[in-house]
Amino acid sequence: MFCMLSLLNLLDVSLISFVALICVANGGIWTFGRTICRVNAFAQQSLFLANLLTLTLIAMERALTLIRRHLVTRKIFGSLAILFMIIPICFATPLLIPGFQVSVFPYRYLCAIGSGSPVLYSLAQLLVYGGCIFVLLICFGSIIKQKRIVRSLPAKPEQYGAFILENRILDEHMQLSRLFFWLVFEYAVIQGPYICLDFFVQIRNSIEVQQSFAQFTGSTTSKDVDTLVTIIKIFHPLIVPTMILVSCNNIWTQLVDKICCRFNKSVVGAFNSMAVGGANNNNPSFAQLLIGANGNANNNDFANNPHVMTLYATPNGDLQLRLPNATVITQPPAQMVQSIRNNEENEEFNERIIYRKNKNIFQHPSTQICTDTECSSSDCNVYNNGNNLNKNEKNNKGKNLNFGKINEEEGKLKKLGIKK
């Protein structure tokens, strides 16, 4: 959409501003003939409305991307772009008809609709302009509302990568939205006064107004006002590309690379290929919808400083560290790996010692000998007391058996009448 806006401003420079400057150089005298005059008026009526409709389309794209991402597709917005280019041409086509009055305004150094035009034509144009302004205000409110929404961290750590990626693309989306705000503000301040003046003169010179308010048709605007408003309007097609290049610095880099036939493997391209997950990612994420929808994921370089290492997140939850030379660290340093391995070996060795000690304790409790230096004195007392208890129980059992045998022998002797 920004490219379309740049193309419209290029046509504005060639068909309107350039012609006005030549007219100024000729002392304000129009020397191009009636045909060029009609083409100049046609270009003004079509490009003014086309610029506003393009800004409206950008506003719809910025707003819908945040709330209805499935609607932001190339097919839908491509169709809207074609429709929005047909509407200005339809409004400007009557100016090419010989019966439609077109006059030269000497203090504007341009041609415009003259006297005798129908007032309904001007009112229809005003209705379209008003509808565009209404849509712009709605989109402004939606973007500001979405910007104030607080995003919280996901509950699962494996979703942090996708969360970081979405925040990066949302930040870029808001940067383009700020650029869009400034473009609308520039259009209202620089282009707006000339459009208002054109509508005022156009309605005043219409047939219905001349017949009903004949006493007001003789009044004219000051020539100084016409000249000042026209000079301010000439700067519009120069300011818009400058604002786009300043806000999207990588566009200038790509333009210079193409002019100089240079090929630069940018980090942003690698990041975007990583963001969409390559050919193995079949589940479109929020980042993919944004990148695929508006095609502007490369408008801001995430690695503006080539001398700083940058941490990138993938949709799979992985984090990758990218060096200034655009190389990806897939493994940690060797010293870190060796340190981790040593810690793991020490932990495994300690676990083996504890396992063996516990195994001996539970399998052979009676033969436990506390000769191990790691065994505490309390453990030794417990196990020794256990051994003593086992020995006492065995002795008591033996005594009880002997006492029972003696009682049986005494009973037999009493029956026989023999005393022991």
Automatic annotation (TrEMBL):
Keyword Transmembrane helix: yes
Membrane topology: Multi-pass membrane protein
Keyword Nucleotide-binding: no
Organism in which the protein naturally occurs: Meloidogyne enterolobii
Signal sequence coordinates: none
One GO location term (cellular component): plasma membrane
Protein name: G-protein coupled receptors family 1 profile domain-containing protein
Top-rank taxon, per record: Eukaryota
Transmembrane segments: 7-30, 42-64, 76-100, 120-144, 179-201
InterPro entries: GPCR_Rhodpsn_7TM
Domain G-protein coupled receptors family 1 profile: 1-244
GO molecular function term, any single one: neuropeptide receptor activity
Annotated compartments: Membrane
UniProt keywords, alphabetically: G-protein coupled receptor, Membrane, Receptor, Transducer, Transmembrane, Transmembrane helix
